């Protein structure tokens, strides 16, 4: 095989993934893995207000690393084993919950990546749960046709967790409100 073709095959082998047809298994805090959301966003009417009397409020936020090689992804958010909604790109939505322990899930739709955590909700408090999708660069080196070759491959990373009130308010201010079907 010619060196330029060998290099092309090597580069493609790093960048192309073969889909697997294994059943997606998600944590119990999530919803049904087969459920998908079609998300739209809009400019919100105003800031997120306080929760209703006797309840706590969770603001589910997705932040996204905007780079030319990445497009927005849909993240589903679950509470206690049921999907509460979804975000796409820099967006958020709000859910009110009864006080007590709840189990939160953030799942990158159509992927196995999921973040879960327990949260004890207190009446009158607002919590900010963020899923962050960011770029991760991977580099591979090798030899092709007697020449040293380095190929970069961009993958997406996924992290989820609770933000401080200040961080949450800032993220909401910089985001759009999600609606979904």
Task: Summarize the structure in short.
The chain is mostly beta strands and 181 residues long.
What does this structure look like?
Mean pLDDT is 79; it is low at 3-21, 139-145 and 148-154. A hairpin with a 2-residue loop joins strand 8 and strand 9 (147-163). The chain is mainly β. The strands form two sheets. It has a six-stranded mixed beta sheet with strand order 1-10-5-2-8-9. It has a four-stranded antiparallel beta sheet with strand order 4-3-6-7, with no helix packed on it. 25% of the residues are buried. It has helices at 3-15, 165-173; strands at 39-42, 56-64, 74-79, 82-88, 91-97, 100-108, 114-121, 126-144, 147-163, 176-180. The N and C termini lie far apart (50 Å). The protein has one domain (3-14, 28-180). It contains two helices and ten strands; from the N terminus they run αβββββββββαβ.
List the helices and strands and how they pair.
Layout: H1 3-15, E1 39-42, E2 56-64, E3 74-79, E4 82-88, E5 91-97, E6 100-108, E7 114-121, E8 126-144, E9 147-163, H2 165-173, E10 176-180
Parallel strand pairs: 2-8, 5-10
Antiparallel strand pairs: 1-10, 2-5, 3-4, 3-6, 6-7, 8-9
The low-pLDDT segments are: 3-21, 139-145, 148-154
Strand line-up in the sheet with most strands: 1-10-5-2-8-9
Structural class: mainly beta
**DSSP strand content:** over 45%
Count of discrete alpha- or pi-helical segments spanning 4 or more residues: 2
Mean pLDDT, all residues: 79
Looking at the structure, what is the overall shape? globular
Radius of gyration: 20 Å
Helix proportion range: 10-25%
